[in-house]
Amino acid sequence: MYSGKIQKALEAQGIRVGDRIIVDKAGRMYEGLLMPRIELGNRNAVVLKLDNGYNIGVDFTGAKLMPSKAAEPKPVKEEEEFELGRVRPELTKVKFDRKKPPVSIITTGGTITSRVDYKTGGVTALMSPQEMVYNIPELAQVANFRMLNPFSVMSESMTSGHWQQLAKAVAKELRRSRGVIVTHGTDTLHFTAAALSFMLRDLGKPVVLAGAQRSTDRGSSDGAFNLICSARVALSDMAAVGICMHGSMADDYCIFTRGTKVRKMHTSRRDAFRPINDKPLAMVWPDGKIKKMQSVPKRSTGVAKADTAFEPKVAIIKSYPGCMPDVIDFYVGRGYRGLVLEATGLGQLPTYGKVSWLKSIKRATDKGVLVCGAAETLYGRLNPNVYSEGRQCKEAGVLFLEDMLPETAYVKLGWVLGHTRSVEKAKAMMLTNYAGEITARTLPGSFLY
Predict the structure, then answer these.
(1) Which of 121, 222, 237, 295 could form a Cys-Cys staple with 270, CB 3.0–4.6 A?
(2) Is residue 120 among the annotated active site residues?
(3) CA–CA separation, 230 vs 132, rounded Å?
(4) Which listed residue (119, 264, 279, 412) is catalytic?
(5) Which regions of 265-337 does DSSP assign to beta strands (E)?
(6) Measured distance CA(243)–CA(273) in Å, rounded
(7) Is 187 among the catalytic positions?
(8) CA dist., res. 198 & res. 416, Å (int)
(9) Kind of pairing, strands 207-210 and 241-246?
(10) Cβ atoms of 319 and 342 closer than 8 Å
(11) Is the CB of residue 364 less than 8 Å from the CB of residue 393?
(12) Cα(207)–Cα(242) distance, rounded to whole angstroms?
């Protein structure tokens, strides 16, 4: 609730939440839609949504309120428009042209299907798949979309069980669609992209993962642009799993990047997803123009299969100054079958004095735990033979994974151990390139692309 003073002024003018109003503050006019007050916000500030999509709060001290003379939408009750979880019925009636090629959109949650809850001021997952697509009418010009929502969860709460469920849903939809788009929260989008890269075998069509860094009701929202470009990729001749997101901060083009060579590299920038030790597969424009940047498997008649076997007892352990080896003992003692150690430099881990990891690594490998090394630098390739510390770790049993990303290594390790109990076979599988996760040579210009 607004302060008593604001409430009285609103009632005097017959103004309700959702009305278009003008706030006169010392001769300066602010015009927009009256929004509910944020629970933790200033009770004496009037919150307006401006025409540019942004919200502002205006201190009511010395201010006046008046209805706007501009055309106003029909006022709605606050609880109808903004109640958590309420979907307006008219937003679920979406029609597409059945003559256009079929594309499936599988929504899982995240910012791309979220908007601001104006009572709390926080972003909340509120939209149904239909409502999300309703907000992007350009999609109707691209394809005939089928929408599914197998589960809804913010990506930081994803588990391997969600990946398995999603892989099965994608494989099923690939049988009836030209391609599949998966909308997903950005925080762990690259983990899921890697999981689908391994779990979808014999892929003959595009699988495109997309998210948003800004919610749909922000003026700088990127979700619609990402989704339109993703639809173009879903209809392309590229048979690959990848992430399609902004290629720059502007609304000019997206990049489609291999699912095993991509990572979220910024908390809030719209072009946060960058290829690591790789270049994008393609640049994509919303009008349908696609510029391939490297060789990509082409669309085929192959029927994708969901190979979802996964061992959840795997973990990533980061090496840092002062870290003690008992963290390895902790996981081994709890029955973990695989560990990814983020090694410094070319493959170094602590090997000196009381912080040495060598004994703990040896105990783990003697118990049949597959211990792998990945580069904490992200860029570059491991070579443990250069320094004695790396050689000692290799002798203790660490399997160094070339230029594989730590997150990709974690996902692959769980997938590999889901297929075999043999450590030797698992080692061979970890060094086998299944989905572009290991490159023979790093492409020129791929560093900080």
Answers:
(1) 222
(2) no
(3) 15
(4) 264
(5) 273-275, 282-284, 290-292, 305-306, 314-318
(6) 8
(7) yes
(8) 9
(9) parallel
(10) yes
(11) no
(12) 7
**For residue 25, how many other CB atoms are within 10 A of its CB?**
15
Taking the domains of the chain in order of start, what are their residue ranges? 4-79, 89-306, 314-430
Here the tokens at position 185 are 């929260």
Marked catalytic residue, from 107, 108, 111, 183: 111
Contact 101, 54 (CB under 8 A): no
**Within this chain, domains 89-306 and 314-430 share the same CATH topology:** yes
Is 111 catalytic? The answer is yes
Per-10-residue mean pLDDT, the chain, length 449: 90 90 92 84 88 86 88 46 44 72 89 58 53 74 89 89 97 96 95 98 97 73 90 97 97 97 96 97 97 96 94 97 96 98 97 96 98 97 96 97 98 98 98 96 91
Q: What is the pLDDT of residue 302?
A: 84
Residue 100 neighbours by CB distance under 10 Å: 15
Assigned token pair, 6:
């604001």
What burial class does residue 190 get, using C-beta atoms within 10 Å of its C-beta: 0-12 exposed, 13-18 middle, 19+ buried?
Answer: buried
Nearest to 374 by CA among 336, 345, 354, 334: 345
Q: Are 205 and 212 in contact (CB under 8 A)?
A: no
pLDDT the model gives residue 75: 47
Q: Is 264 a catalytic residue?
A: yes
- Residues 233-265 as b or e (16 or more Cβ within 10 Å = b): bbbbebbbbbbbbbbeeeeebbbbbbbbbbbbe
Residue 115 is predicted with a pLDDT of 58
Q: What is the pLDDT of residue 37?
A: 79
187, 251, 271, 329: the active-site residue: 187
Q: Report pLDDT for 85.
A: 39
pLDDT at 32: 92
* Secondary structure letter of residue 299 according to DSSP: P
Q: Which position among 107, 113, 183, 186 bears the catalytic label?
A: 186
Output the CATH code of domain 4-79: 2.30.30.520
The token pair at 261 is 């060579």
Provide the whole-model pTM.
0.82
Q: What fold is seen in the domain 89-306?
A: Rossmann fold (3.40.50)
- CATH code, 314-430: 3.40.50.40
Q: What pLDDT is attached to residue 444?
A: 87
